[in-house]
Specification:
two-stranded antiparallel sheet; Rossmann fold; alpha/beta; homodimer; eleven-stranded mixed β-sheet; 15 strands; 15 helices
Chain lengths: 441, 441
């Protein structure tokens, strides 16, 4: 264990944790330092698996995963005090939260150059992991899993491939999981149009336009269709989903700040419907160029931001004084980021061929990375179905549906949005338990 | 005002109402007596509109509408005390709750013969209305609207046509509204299959089966397809929706009693997918004949049932001692009921031709009468669209979407289930206000 990083006291914490925690920096390359926060398992740290958690964006911080989703404690609305999370994932696992890439949250690089891309992030994360195991060599033998959410749908498999095939780092790597991940830009955009219509967001007129302009003999291309009429119709559809004031991360939850406060094309969306950016000129006539708004839209992160930016909290977490204020997402990292993988199909195929286990889970009311796109993605991997598509239960209620395809599972979490552990904590914990123990859901 | 029926005291009521209420019986035919409960408006009873509220089933009681949905007070979980409903519809309207037909709730007929059908119910309701206006002649001049929910999708327009064209009854009839109504059995069943797949309830295998067996050149018939393979696939789909333990009335709400306590084909569903009953023999191989369960499934009505069955409550409501206990739905009425209208398209067309106003609204997470079937129904009326399909707001949040087609509006309530005023009280009240005042939503 690396003593200097140990967190021995936290402002606002009135309970005594039955686990240890460390916060500090991992070297991710020359002059590049990734902030990590590591919590040991509340059960049996020696035997329980080790889990890496990565939020997406690109440009958003994994501390949101810690403080709002599956961490051992969350921040009260006062922005000053903490409360325990009954369904914390560290009840059964050692969890490493990593702020990645440099420029995100409290991670930085000496040269402040924050342009990066998918392969670079995977390489940097891989080096950060090596740095972690140098600090915590005791955890080399624990079963190891990599979890990514949202744009972590790219991070998790690309990093997993390096861990599984890399030379220097020796771990007991077992598999990876992706929550509401972007797995294929084409499938994500294509499925979103269906999702929108069948959830009542579009009228018949727009649906007719979409079908007449984007489809041929029943086969539709809503993704990179070059027909101008299609680009216009899809632009309209996407504007309703992303700019009308709906909570794109959880259709049935309110939009923090109200529907009218939001209504701008979001930079986080650049990476989702980037094919349509090229068509904006064409669609000027029906809406005009998009402007930037809050990132992420409709989500209120004030409390965790206030807490993380307190001087005493930064000190307790060993954050250098010279670093700027923590923000949930970095606009700069997001804007400068270059996507290299339009789909991670090949990456998954390699990982599955290596015998690794994978879980693709989706809160089914999310529209940023909707469940259907990921369902199609998993099915198109061509793995043989080894179970029917079936319900799973939590607390004697249907918590969602899942299907097993050999070593990979596709699973939905009913009624949950983009941040599954935040909005369905009990079911997600059950899901985690089943996945880690390789038992039925 | 009819004095003997006035409700002057109610057990469990600790607040003083600023409205008057009556409970008693309306004559609906020879020896047929429908129980009504009438509450005046909290605003201006003389000028405010009069609204008739009908729950569906067939066989379910409109007192569920009163005590769980839009009435001035609801029953606490103790089954003994009452609390005020902030969004009661009688804040702006005089509301008449009618238990219909005979055999439902506290309504009865002397001969206890409870077989009936759509036309008979409309005739009986029409006579009950005449009986109401005889007791309450003061309300003849108020604007009058008929609201129906669920199977009330048949009751409301068929009764409206009698009111609009009948001779004896003189009212200031303005229009009708239908909430999550059954408007066309074909469209309801057809749309439900799409709804299920695009909400993540079916896997790709079943979706492929459905498409391969029920569709030809992209045109699908999931409703009364005679192909055996299609009947089997649709049967599987409907079993997942209605029998797997999901709350069919509100997909994202829990099923009261748990998913395992329910799982039987429900009698309330007889009238929804009756075409498939004929195919049950064929599909024995994949599931067996359905059995009966709780009606309505997943809904907990214990509190209101306990309260309504108290001796002192019955007495306060002027219920004869000889009547049996009140139940939320009558299995007998449901089982003996004969549907005559596979669609109420003609009825709507006649009503719209008479210049009446109509509102078809749907909580968009209901699967008993899903929004898409009603959206298609309204569009197929062929009225010219007079507004785009657009969002509407409540409390600065998107509360749903709507489109105007001349005198008829189709409107969704986002995230609400079958019982819209129960699960989205604020938005429903706003909707009611806009509809009654004929203003934008």
């Amino acid at each position: 264990m690396y003593d200097p990083d140990e967190v021995v006291h936290l402002p606002g914490m009135s309970f005594k944790p039955n686990y240890r925690q460390w916060s500090g920096y991992l070297k991710a390359g020359a002059g590049k330092f990734f902030h990590y926060w590591f919590v040991t398992s509340q059960r049996d740290p020696l035997k329980d698996p080790l889990l890496l958690w990565l939020n997406g964006g690109p440009g958003c911080s994994s501390l949101d995963g810690f403080l709002s989703e599956n961490g051992p404690f969350h921040v009260n609305n006062d922005g000053a005090t903490l409360y325990e999370n009954e369904f914390s994932w560290n009840k059964i696992a050692n969890v490493l939260y990593l702020e990645s890439p440099a420029g995100v949250g409290y991670s930085y690089s000496d040269d402040k150059q924050y342009a990066t891309n998918d392969d670079q992030v995977a390489d940097d994360n891989y080096r950060a992991l090596q740095s972690f195991f140098l600090k915590f060599p005791n955890f080399t033998q624990n079963e190891f899993y990599i979890f990514g959410e949202s744009y972590g749908g790219i991070y998790a498999p690309t990093l997993s491939l390096r861990v599984a095939t890399g030379g220097a780092l020796k771990t007991n790597f077992k598999g990876f999981a992706v929550g509401n991940g972007i797995s294929s830009f084409a499938l994500n955009d294509q499925s979103l149009v269906y999702f929108g219509y069948y959830h009542g967001l579009f009228g018949e007129d727009l649906w007719r336009d979409l079908n007449e302009n984007c489809c041929d003999k029943g086969v539709c291309n809503f993704y990179n269709n070059t027909a101008e009429g299609c680009a216009i119709a899809v632009g309209q559809a996407f504007r309703i989903v992303y700019e009308s004031g709906l909570n794109e991360y959880a259709l049935y939850l309110d939009c923090a700040g109200g529907a009218r406060s939001q209504g701008a094309y979001q930079r986080t969306m650049f990476h989702l419907y980037r094919n349509y950016r090229e068509h904006w000129k064409k669609v000027q006539s029906v809406g005009g160029a998009p402007s930037l708004g809050e990132v992420p839209p409709c989500i209120n992160s004030t409390a965790q931001m206030n807490w993380l930016n307190r001087g005493d909290v930064r000190k307790a977490l060993h954050i250098p004084d010279i670093l700027p204020a923590w923000d949930i997402c970095s606009d700069e990292v997001g804007a400068l980021y270059r996507t290299l993988y339009p789909t991670v199909k090949d990456v998954y195929e390699k990982l599955l061929a290596l015998g690794l286990r994978a879980l693709v889970y989706n809160g089914d009311t999310d529209m940023a990375c909707n469940f259907l796109g990921d369902q199609w993605f998993v099915e198109q991997l061509g793995q043989k179905a080894t179970s029917p598509y079936q319900r799973w239960l939590f607390d004697d209620q249907i918590a969602g549906f899942y299907q097993q395809f050999g070593n990979i599972t596709f699973l939905t979490v009913k009624g949950a949005g983009h941040m599954v552990p935040q909005w369905a904590p009990g079911p997600s914990f059950h899901m985690l338990q089943s996945f880690l123990s390789n038992k039925p859901y």
